[in-house]
Amino acid sequence: MNVGERVKFQFGGQEKEGLVVKIFPKKVYLKVDFPRHPGKIVVRPIAELEGKGPAPRKKKKEKGKKERAQRKEEKKKEV
After folding, report:
1. Residue with the larger pLDDT of the pair 53 and 19
2. What is the predicted pLDDT for the residue at 8?
3. C-alpha pair distances (Å), 9 with each of 2, 21, 43
């Protein structure tokens, strides 16, 4: 991927095409023509454009919910 190349990427459930403006080690700046915003700059991770997909998001811990439910039951038994 070099500056000046045209690249296709996902945006809003559709595939858009943009022109590479800047490249950094992990991010790419793309110039995209939207209907009401011609020349808009969009930032995307290089991994997403190369087909590796977005990084998986961390899942929230559910440990606290179970503990709170047990404490509530214990308090109800005491009262």
Report:
1. 19
2. 92
3. 15, 14, 11
